[in-house]
Specification:
With 176 residues, the protein is of the alpha/beta class. The chain has 3 helices and 7 strands. A 5-stranded mixed β-sheet has the order 5-4-3-7-6. Strands 1-2 form a two-stranded parallel ribbon.
């Protein structure tokens, strides 16, 4: 049995249904395929009859296996603490599970769309913005027409909330 390191927080994590499914899929992949691959690597390295202290392949395989187990424990902890939200906000406010269209004030660019998600699901390159990120945190509770200012390394950045909508059929991330 694997224990969860005490460094993992016991606080509840709000998460979308898709995020919960993604965590379950990642955990299943690591506990089945990941563990099998790690065990095979350790087994192969042990076939070398050298003293374990002089077997770098074995040391690397054992370290990789330990890292895998830590990741599994982390995902299990996240799943244990995850609270799936009923659905996105329908009151026009930015919340987890909503899509928000932002325009950077002072530029002529088109609005950018983000799906507001928990930190577990965040992937800005795919338009999934964490509620814990500076921009995500500044947007929570805002409505269409509101303006927000976010501290950035090169100075404050200002955004206008162009639209807030309940999430459409969400895309489930397949990447682990």
């Amino acid at each position: 049995m694997h224990t969860i390191p005490s460094t993992f927080s016991r606080t509840v994590i709000p998460i979308t249904g898709d995020g919960h499914r993604l965590l379950r899929e990642r955990l299943a992949a690591l506990t089945s395929v990941g563990r099998a691959e790690a065990s095979a690597r350790v087994r192969e390295a042990r076939e070398d009859d050298r003293d374990p202290a002089e077997n770098p392949e074995l040391m690397h395989a054992l370290q990789a296996q330990e890292q895998l187990e830590r990741r599994i424990a982390e995902l299990q902890s996240q799943l244990d603490r995850a609270r799936v939200l009923d659905g996105p906000s329908v009151n026009g406010e930015v919340a987890i599970g909503t899509r928000v269209h932002l325009r950077r004030i002072g530029t002529r660019g088109s609005p950018v769309e983000y799906r507001i998600v928990s930190s577990i699901e965040a992937d800005p390159s795919r338009g999934m913005l964490s509620i814990e990120s500076p921009v995500g945190a500044a947007l929570l509770g805002r409505r269409s027409g509101d303006r927000v200012e976010v501290a950035a390394p090169r100075g404050p950045v200002r955004f206008e909330v162009v639209a807030v909508e309940a999430d459409r059929e969400p895309e489930l991330a397949a990447a682990a």
